[in-house]
Amino acid sequence: MTFTAMTVSTWVTLLASLSGVITLLYFLRLRRRQVEVPFSPLWRQVLLESQSNSLFRMLKRFISWLIQLIFLSLVLTALADPVFSGDTEISHSSEKDPESKHTLLLMDTSASMQAMMRGTTRFSIAQTKALEAINQRIPNEVFMLATAGRDVTTETGWTDNNESLKQVVRSLQTSDSTSNPVSWMQYARNATRGLPNARVVLITDQEFPPIDDDIARSIHLEVIQIDAREPAKHQNNVAIVDFIIRSHLGNSLKYAIYYKLKNTSPQTVTVDAYLHVDASGTARNHSDFISLPPVGTPARHTLAPGEEKTIERVSVDLSGVRAALVLDVQDIEDVLQVDNVAFSVIPERKTVQVALVGPRQMFVEAALKARNHVNVVHVPLQQWTNADGFDLVVFNGVTPNQAPQGNSIWLNTDSELPIPVNGTIPGGPLIVPSSQSQHPAMKYVRFIDLEPSRLLRVKAGRDDTVLARTKRGSRPAIVAHSDESARWLVVAFDPVESEWVAHYSFSVFFVNAINWFFEEESRLSRTLTLARPWNIQLHWPHRETVEITTPSGEEFTALVDDGGRIAFSGMEAGFYEIRASEVESNSLKTVAATMANAAESTLRAEGQYAPYVPRTPPEIRLDQVPKIFGAPAWQVLLLLALILTVIEWLTYNRRWTI
Fold first, then answer.
1. What is the SS3 assignment for 474?
2. Measured distance CA(265)–CA(263) in Å, rounded
3. Do the beta carbons of residue 286 and residue 573 sit within 8 Å?
4. What is the pLDDT of residue 627?
5. Which of 341, 339, 342 is nearest to 601 (CA)?
6. pLDDT tens for residues 540-589?
7. 8 A C-beta contact, residue 395 and residue 408
8. CATH homologous superfamily for 352-519?
């Protein structure tokens, strides 16, 4: 026989303790009442009869004591819930220890779960499926609930409380991030490692590359699939997979817009692209921009089935700091809306104040003014004092008394500033090393038949970068330097004598140089994708934490590592504001985030997995449970205890046991 509700030692301890209390009560002597009688000799005979019956009375008290012990034994045994196991000895068995079962319920909250399906979202259907799975939980099974988008979040611990699990399921929401099954499987493996009878139940639309069969088997993966092989209309979708706004290279007052569209539906669609701009810098998400009027007329595009198209719009007038591109899809019912909007930070156009020190040089002035947000002021060397009021100083063949604090370009300057120069050497054909062809100052700069007759013999330091050199001899021709205090460029030959000024790359070089000095490329703030963790570089010194406000208005504190990068990745599309933690600081950085993932927008289920099967309760043979008249043992024991109580009450009233 096996006890399931308490251990044998507990049963014995309770029986012994309570039996001792009952026995002690029976040893207490009854206090006799004093009764006044008129003539005591009349009662002597009665007292003599009482003494002769004392042995019989003691026997009656023993029967009463024995009945109470039997009553106690029956009640305690009933509470222990006995089950006949076939063994001759009494033992204790816990239903949850050796045969307990663990189920990790993993719910897909990626962006594709927002797709509409039969008048509701896939995620709403997934919540219903999760509630059904919880209702099918068997008594010796515990659940743990987690949500899975790009990252995995634990929502509950291991629990057998169905109501708390259901409450959490009903409160869950989707994210705008994409699926990441690799991280899901790593999490599932760690969460179930070493647990008995563990399995993973994934509720998903399977919009991700197939999971490896060996990994699925190792974690006992079972899948509840949403939208399994649904009609094609449930896959109709048009998505923005890239969006960026940058400054127009030739006009500081205008911008160039680039975006990429993808049609995942099996039919040709027409799309109107609206551009919304926020001048106040307060709009954060889709609903904020929809309330703003669009800029100009929408651009109409036609996309063939499965087509991906890149669109470029140049010379666009924008007045604001934040922008959103919103699609209006014609011809089909677009089932997924989150990828119909993309966000971008509009780069700030800074007017750069440049001092051209030395003889007036029209070629250099023209190259500097290739972008009309540059204001050039000519300053003779004898009038030059310092760089106050200027963002960039260009020394054209002259040497100041000391190097300026800030950005500078040195053209054919024979001096010890900013790096040592030791005379001149013969020139020759120049090349841009392949390792430096992508340097911000050398993009699109190609030297064709550029052969200066002489070069300054410059000595590049350890922290300097050689951007151009001679084809033979590898003598430095253009050297760059960057540190926390300043950046500078040295051109070790005469642009006029070498006829570089007549080549297109001369103007491109100066345009690139200004971009590099003032980090206009970084100010493009390319839209971050929610498909991957972020790598946001901050240029604020000595920060350990920053405050982040999400598109929905939630606030978080994020750590900043030694390299100035923040440990944070958003999960919703829109604008994120990053501020220094110190109250007195005004540092602010705004970044835009968009789903921007063609795979997530395709809405096509992939892979085959074992389907979810509810567990069956542990089997108990009927012959193991003793029954009398169809009732379990504990109920029969309580009935017997009740019968003994009635007998005790009747005998007491009949004064048979006292």
1. coil
2. 6
3. yes
4. 53
5. 339
6. 767 788 999 999 999 999 998 887 888 889 999 999 999 886 654 557 88
7. yes
8. Class I glutamine amidotransferase (GATase) domain (3.40.50.880)
Domains 234-345 and 352-519 share a fold: no
- What lies within 8 Å, CB to CB, of 538 at 6+ separation is 546, 560, 564, 565, 566, 578, 589
Backbone angles phi, psi at 630, to 5 degrees: 80, 5
- Apex 241 CA angle, 238 and 244, nearest 5: 130
Whether the Cβ atoms of residue 322 and residue 551 lie closer than 8 Å to each other: no
Are the CB atoms for 408 and 394 separated by under 8 Å? yes
Superfamily of domain 533-599: Immunoglobulins (2.60.40.10)
Q: Is 396 helix (H, G, I), strand (E, B) or coil?
A: strand
pLDDT digits (tens, 9 = 90+) for 512-539: 888 788 765 444 456 889 988 888 888 7
- Residue 504 burial class via C-beta count within 10 angstroms: exposed 0-12, middle 13-18, buried 19 and up: exposed
Secondary-structure class of domain 101-230 per CATH:
alpha beta
In the chain, what are the domain boundaries? 2-28+44-93+632-653, 101-230, 234-345, 352-519, 533-599
Give the Cα separation of 491 and 616 in Å (integer): 80
Q: Which CATH superfamily is domain 234-345 in?
A: Immunoglobulins (2.60.40.10)
Q: Kindly report the number of other CB atoms within 10 A of residue 430's CB atom.
A: 22
Pairing outcome for strands 308-316 and 352-357: unpaired
Q: 437: which residues sit within 8 A by CB, 6+ positions away? A: 443
